[in-house]
Amino acid sequence: MGSYDLVIVGGGIGGSALATVMARAGRSVLLLEQSEIYEDRVRGEWIAPWGVDEVKRLGLYDLLRDAGGHHITRHVTYDEHVDPAIAEAAPTPLGLFREGVPGPLCLGHPHHCQTLFDAAAAAGAETLRGVRVIESRAGADPQVTFEAAGETRTASARLLVGADGRTSQVREAAGIVLHQDTPHHWFAGLLVEGVDEWPADLQAIGTEGDFGFLAFPQGGGRVRVYGGYALDEAKRFKGPDGPQRFLDAFAMKCSPANRHIAAGRPAGPLFSYINADAWTDRPFAPGVVLVGDAAGWNDPIIGLGLSITYRDVRLVTEILKASDDWSEAALAPYAEERAERMRRLRIAGRLQAALDMEFGPEASARRRSYHERGAVDPTLRLHSIAVMAGPELAPPETFTDAHRERVLGA
Q1: Rounded distance, CA 354 to CA 403, Å?
Q2: Does position 154 have pLDDT exceeding 90, yes or no?
Q3: What is the pLDDT of residues 103-152, one digit of tens each?
Q4: How many angstroms separate the most distant Cα atoms in the chain?
Q5: Is the pLDDT of residue 410 over 70?
Q6: d(CA 21, CA 292)
Q7: 133: Cβ contacts below 8 Å, ≥ 6 apart
Q8: pLDDT value of position 35
Q9: Contact 16, 44 (CB under 8 A)
Q10: Would you tell me how many other CB atoms lie within 10 Å of the CB of residue 208?
């Protein structure tokens, strides 16, 4: 049986980033990853400016840039009630949210994961792929029993890290309760290639009719696109022609450049999933700490999964590097910050979903009112500060029922 300072279950972005940082700090790390090859999961490719700041603080920014990380520097919001020429005449500059950060950073998810996994190994972590975890044990003597390369092993650690995603085995083994919101809408995503006409520095969001879209260029003529649609339309993009019908939905009058997306070619799978928030009250237990989606996630409508994960990793590694006290008491500040962070982001996500991913005459009239009032009252857009600059930088009143009612015109 091997013994380590840290055994990390999950070699995705959170687990591999944490393994890299701790191995660089001289700790013994075992990193376990189930997959043999990272695949396109249709999420986890956009890092908000505040998340980029977290990447920098972790010492991983140059690594991601050298791997092809691509900055987006402008944003346009389109809507069926807004003349596209007016929308495009005043794009939001995305370098204004965090000093020294030109805008969000995009990097394809499989390549992102592999880059960090390789960095963990280069830093001295023991890394294993094709791992099947048989049992995780929390408590005073944390252990993981797993199978790799036909061999069954048990590894013990001072601390077991659950970075194993939404269906976390480590979370379940530690008895950590996951709370989940009621789903709001469907969200589908697809990587599209052959979209060279779309500006490489421009991201966009918009709603028209019964469909809301988001577009994030990846560079090289590729754009990651997402589409939101009503909860009762589960089969809307199912079937072999689903990807083409999904692309056809992007042909919108409110965003003329979407025609280039509609004419593009699928470069990966089309996945649909229900949007909702999930969270844990305490992302740790005796001998265990959770990071990333294992600890709970935000509604993907505001795209903050990676930013949340990188802050998790930064906070946890700072605690672990600062002292040999890795107790629950030492991890309490992480839980406190995360609880308030996720509370604020739940409110921001619900507000954005109500604005962009609700359909029909009433929702359309609400969006029209929001855009008209927002043109003269920028405080109606304060939730965008939470998304882009970080939830702690938005005024506290942003996260109240009164502000939501004011934004939605209730």
Answers
A1: 13
A2: yes
A3: 999 999 999 999 999 999 999 999 999 999 999 999 999 999 999 999 99
A4: 66
A5: no
A6: 15
A7: 9, 32, 34, 144, 145, 146, 164, 169
A8: 96
A9: no
A10: 21
